[in-house]
Amino acid sequence: MGRITCANVLSDLYAMGVTECDNMLMLLGVSNKLSTDEKEIVVKLIMQGFRDCALEAGTSIQGGQTVVNPWMVIGGVATSVCLPSEYCQPDGAVPGDVLVLTKALGTQVAVNVHQWLIEQSDRWRQVSTVLTEQQARQAYQSATRQMARLNRTAARLMRQYNAHACTDVTGFGLLGHANNLAACQKADVSMVVHNLPIIAGMAAASAHLGGAFGLLRGTSAETSGGLLVAMSRTDAAEYCKALEATSSSDGGGAAWIVGVVEAGSRSAVIADKPRIIEVNAAGNTE
Amino acid sequence: MGRITCANVLSDLYAMGVTECDNMLMLLGVSNKLSTDEKEIVVKLIMQGFRDCALEAGTSIQGGQTVVNPWMVIGGVATSVCLPSEYCQPDGAVPGDVLVLTKALGTQVAVNVHQWLIEQSDRWRQVSTVLTEQQARQAYQSATRQMARLNRTAARLMRQYNAHACTDVTGFGLLGHANNLAACQKADVSMVVHNLPIIAGMAAASAHLGGAFGLLRGTSAETSGGLLVAMSRTDAAEYCKALEATSSSDGGGAAWIVGVVEAGSRSAVIADKPRIIEVNAAGNTE
């Protein structure tokens, strides 16, 4: 959880193409329902995960705040002071650009399905007609691994390959963030998503539950999701290739061209019958 | 609550002598126990108070995060990028310096006593033998007013009057923060507190409750407390005068010389039988 939070916090900098973080704060609400022993183990592990991830990102935690709370809360702040040449303005998408996504969708579904499996709940029994226990566990591992992965390499390459605009995909889901991105462009554009790369099995699980979480409509919340980058088609192809080449060193660097930028009215849509790309545990497309 | 939080957050900058804040974030946990109507009123007022206080401080809120939580949480982050000439290192106190405090102590006691009064609890019946209802209400108002007051003028004047070291007094109480300050000085010093300026009536209330909150031992937590500044005796006298002269414009600017810096072993103590200074609602010493 600490690692994922830290990666999620840093992602806001990475979405601006900023790869060097000057300073981080860690914010903790420690549950008053934990016993002293539980606190000792859980809080220490969360702080360690946050700290490890910050170190991996080449930064460190200089402060923060811890409070008592009825449930666990974890968050943080990442700050950088930059020259204009060190970040990308997120408003330069133009018709003809394509949209690249750097992590698969479906983290919310994977985490919930896994929880149902552990609890052997009714919903798990429902999902288990389309998903084996092993598939559910793999999806959860896959989700955890990609949530803990930094968008730093994706950010560095984004500057190198002349990104026109970028956001990161988190609580509002792919469509929500694409909408926000479309709305803040200088040009009158719309964004159309044709492909949905989804953690293996999660599209079937969502469909089987009557469209649970809105995953296939692009509205399922993601935690520490990937970057959604608008860039020219040529740059995008090079960008995806370069990002995939880093896979071995930073534990997964798949990227998919998921849509296009057209002249339009500053909004985003998911195309009718989008193509579902099943992404397996190794981050590769099946 | 919004105002107080904002003043408390900014206080960390002011304790470094930094008077210009570049950017603020507001962090909100909205209680899931509030009805829609309550949310509409309470959350709006808290956000408005935070925003008003930020404006008063010459800064503004550029971001933040809101989450759902079992109880209300409010916090924030204040960031400034400074030249070395724009802040004070907090490590230059030397023997012979005196300690100045810029807000009275006792906010925790005042807020609790007021709560007991509202609830007409047993503790209120106990305290009411040494405190009238009117005194309890005045103490609460006085506490609220000073918690919402910015330490900005105190910070500006501190640079002007050559402060040697400073901290702000919050959760660890006067003694806790004095201890931290003494521990981080370049010189081997100790800090001895002789005077305790306390919101009128709160010393009696605390004493009557068997030393409740540790107010007379300097360990009662403060919220958005004053600055504790080490400076030469001459500068301190001028500093207090200058700060008091700003009272009318910024709603209270009392300051008291509360102790001395001596050669010692990097810790702080409250002197035996410290002098209690009763501070009335107008921020003046009675």
From TrEMBL, chains A, B:
Cross-referenced Pfam families: AIRS, AIRS_C
Keywords per UniProt: ATP-binding, Coiled coil, Kinase, Nucleotide-binding, Selenium, Transferase
InterPro entries: PurM-like_C_dom, PurM-like_C_sf, PurM-like_N, PurM-like_N_sf, SPS/SelD
Domain PurM-like C-terminal: from-to ranges: 95-270
Stretches assigned to coiled coil: 133-160
GO MF term set: ATP binding; selenide, water dikinase activity
Keyword Transit peptide recorded: no
Keyword Acetylation in annotation: no
GO biological process: selenocysteine biosynthetic process
Gene Ontology cellular-component annotations: cytoplasm
Family annotation (Gene3D superfamilies): PurM-like C-terminal domain (3.90.650.10), PurM-like, N-terminal domain (3.30.1330.10)
Residue ranges of every copy of the PurM-like N-terminal domain listed in the record: 2-78
PANTHER family tied to this protein: INACTIVE SELENIDE, WATER DIKINASE-LIKE PROTEIN-RELATED, SELENIDE, WATER DIKINASE
UniProt protein name: Selenide, water dikinase
